[in-house]
Amino acid sequence: MIEIDALHKSFGQKTVLDGISLGVTQGESLCVIGQSGTGKSVLLKCILGLTRPDAGRILWQGKALDRTTRPDFMNRFGMLFQGAALFDSLSVWQNVAFRLRQRMPDAKARAIAVEKLARVGLGAETADLMPAELSGGMAKRAGLARAIADDPAVIFFDEPTTGLDPIRARRINDLIRGIVTETGATAITITHDMDSVRAIGDRVALLENGRIAWDGPVAQMNDAAPLAAFLGQQNRS
Ligand SMILES: Nc1ncnc2c1ncn2[C@@H]1O[C@H](COP(=O)(O)OP(=O)(O)OP(=O)(O)O)[C@@H](O)[C@H]1O
Fold first, then answer.
1. Residue 157 C-alpha to ligand 1 middle, in angstroms?
2. Which fold has domain 27-38+77-236?
3. Does ipTM top 0.85?
4. Which of 30, 63, 67, 93 has the fewest CB atoms in 10 Å of its CB?
5. What does the UniProt keyword field contain (predicted)?
6. What is the pLDDT of residues 74-119, one digit of tens each?
7. Measured in whole angstroms, how far is the alpha carbon of residue 165 from the centre of its chain?
């Protein structure tokens, strides 16, 4: 469904992505892990069209993303940003319904927003609150409701548990897994959190020195030597 083909990206003398090839099939949940500064965000930005790669292609349903094919892709993805990134000046429901309001009346968009808020465990009374009135966990849930508001085919999760305590992190991971399973959406998660990988992922890819050092099923990651080294470093840090 999404294929990353020989992606290269350098900033000046620094090579960040050095020939990344990676695919994710329809309905699959892929987690991309790696040390800080290994290029996970750069990879995500290349997929989203926010950073232009020096070489390589990204294919969506078999077609390379370019000026003609990208708009369709942009309408089909949802994203949970690190820190939720809600618009401060919009109410919770207006945040959730941000895209919907561009193509339907407010009453209908609000009804869908309230339904999505319920799916992430937030009651209708949260719809008219402002983001500043939400706790960190509630803001993350509202961000998740926004990510799924338009029934996306692909959902990106950027460090979904950052800033949450372990109990809230586990709840968000379980919620994400439930939503990904029930919607059949393809999921790409960027994370440091191995609990997220275990909860959310079907597959995991380790980014190291600009390349994919290991790519395989989550169920096999405990036996993978490159991952053992990464996990050892994580435990020491
Ligand atoms: N616009 C830019 N200009 C110059 N260097 C950049 C730019 N964007 C990213 N980099 C560099 O690319 C490297 C990878 O950055 P990136 O943010 O993708 O890392 P990351 O794996 O997402 O890290 P973290 O887990 O800490 O978020 C870093 O060395 C960073 O300084």
1. 17
2. Rossmann fold (3.40.50)
3. yes
4. 67
5. ATP-binding, Nucleotide-binding, Transport
6. 889 999 988 778 999 999 999 999 999 999 999 999 999 999 999 9
7. 19
